[in-house]
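Posted in: Protein Modeling Q&A

I'm a second-year student putting together a small comparison for a lab meeting, and my supervisor asked me to include a predicted structure for Aldehyde oxidase GLOX. I've never done this before, so apologies if this is the wrong subforum. The sequence is pasted below exactly as I got it from our records. If anyone can share the structure token output, I'd also love a short note on what stands out.
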Amino acid sequence: MSATPFVFSVLILQLLFASQPCHRFLAAAADGRWQLLQKSIGVSAMHMQLLRNDRVVVFDRTDFGPSKLPLPNGKCRNDPSDTALKVDCTAHSVEYDVLTNTFRPLMVQTDVWCSSGAIMPSGNLVQTGGFNDGERRVRTFSPCSTCDWQETPNGLAAKRWYASNHILPEGRQIVVGGRRQFNYEFVPKTITANTFSLPFLLQTSERGVENNLYPFVFLNVDGNLFIFANNRAILLDFMKNKVVKTYPTIPGGDPRSYPSTGSAVLLPLKNLKAAAIQAEVLVCGGAPKGSYVQAVRGKFIGALNTCARIKITDPNPQWVMETMPLARVMGDMILLPNGNVLLINGAGSGTAGWELGRNPVLNPVLYKPDNKIGTRFETQNPTTVPRLYHSTAALLRDGRVLVGGSNPHAFYNLTGVLFPTELSLEAFSPAYLDTKFNNIRPTITAPKSMSGIKYGTKLTVRVVITGKVAKNQVSVTMVAPAFNTHSFSMNQRLLVLGNDKVAALGKATYDIDVTTPRSGNLAASGFYLLFVVHQGIPSKGIWVKLQ
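Accepted answer (user: helix_wrangler)
Welcome! Here is the predicted structure, written out as tokens:
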């Protein structure tokens, strides 16, 4: 090759990169590794929850016919009201054991389609609602090797389909919204058995489209509830049933809620000993106005490529817009132990709903919230498996992200369709798990897993770090295990405890003193994953119980 064409090519590439905003990261090397864990678990993972015994409860729905996993010992579900099978001898839920990479079938008794849930302070998964005979059910799953689903009929005051749940400081769950439910209620039922009107959900519902289901719900640091639906949000005093703040509409006004499904996270909470703690919410992706109607007609409009970030604790909060390197609808947002956010799964056009998504987005994207705006996004290595409507993702204790699901069909269609029903499980390993970081990766030796910790007290975490230690880059984080479905991880929360002091004990051993969260407004009582992060590289987590 002559020198002239080569120089010309270099100039063209330089012009191409120079013409792009710096946050596109076209020149950055992609990171992250993918691993196929199970080719098929027999059930498509529409819902996913990590438990304190390092097992993940996965479930789909009951009304599509038989799954690909039989129930054990000739067991069958007899349900006269099921719309597909009155007698069904296949499983629609599984328990996946992370440590052994094995799974076992579970039996749900009623339809859990598009339901919600959260981990209670006891460590039990309490899960609510669904479709048909499941719409007012409350279900409980306890973490044990032989446990199965237990159901409470009429455990809900209202029918809940596409609702969102959150754990409250006193340990109850609040259940917000659902299809044609412009209200909220609490579980478990005590004195408060009624529903409470929430006109905001009616105001954000678009006729014939909705665009406000599975609202994004976060507990603010003042104990009130941030609720986002469609393209805007409120702060709700749920005890007084009073809106205490109304947030502005996201610039552009495009919808971010189901079926124009974006995703959202409460960004890591920091400076927890400060008198006034700042809280920020990040909403990413979604679909432009009118996308759902157009998709139903066979025209698939490109997804939104923007994120909106807001300081919800500010007296005059405003949305700050950012541009993602890849447009995404039906994506998931997962908080990683080091405080970064992983955007994963989803489509480049269309919306949620049967057959309504196109152009799978195979590349995850890392978002670094502490970087300067314009330098926060990094595109990661792609999977080979499309994860569209009804996909899920969950953080594991070892720092990997478990990925499953994708069924854009009314039934299980494994062949002869554009995007077959996906029964596999994968794991995405962020770059921080690369072996080249092993010398700076902390290993927690104390406290022991399952230790109890108290509010507002000193906690000492002992670690081994074989390489050189940068004490000012050592931090302890706590992550609440989230209930993931329909692109939203309910009750997802990360607290940065930082470090009050790092003491070297010799033989590569260090004690890290931190102060635990001071109240249930910051972290409700219950089980958390505790990590030590050194220079951005997290340890494996341990389970602790905050009480």
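A couple of things worth pointing out for your meeting: The longest strand covers residues 526-534. The chain has three helices and 44 strands.
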